[in-house]
Design goal:
Blueprint (H helix, E strand, L loop, with lengths): L1 H33 L14 H53 L1
């Protein structure tokens, strides 16, 4: 009797740990993403719903990283365009003043 209860308790503990560990890992990764850290990576070989959830999380994170790269690239392009336009304005002002002196 005691042995069967012990086996049931150990089995229940292992099953709960097997289920809760990946969920806790996912929760921790989500918290990091919420703080702005996009370096989290969940690799899972599970073929159940938790494995599917981890795959979808990784796919979402890849998309967020790509959008962050694009936003950074857009900022760089806009900065270059702004500098170019500012330099053209300076040249135009210089030419106007030069023509006035003639």
């Amino acid at each position: 009797m005691f042995l069967s209860v012990l086996i049931v308790l150990v089995s229940a503990y292992l099953a709960a740990r097997n289920l809760l560990t990946p969920i806790t890992d996912l929760k921790n990764a989500l918290n990091k993403v919420a703080e702005g850290d996009l370096t989290s990576d969940l690799s899972s070989t599970r073929v159940d719903e938790i494995g599917l959830l981890n795959q979808e999380f990784s796919h979402m994170l890849d998309g967020m990283r790509e959008r962050k790269k694009l936003a950074s690239l857009h900022r760089k392009v806009l900065t270059l365009v702004k500098r170019e336009l500012a330099s053209r304005d300076l040249i135009w002002v210089f030419l106007q003043r030069f023509w006035k002196t003639l």
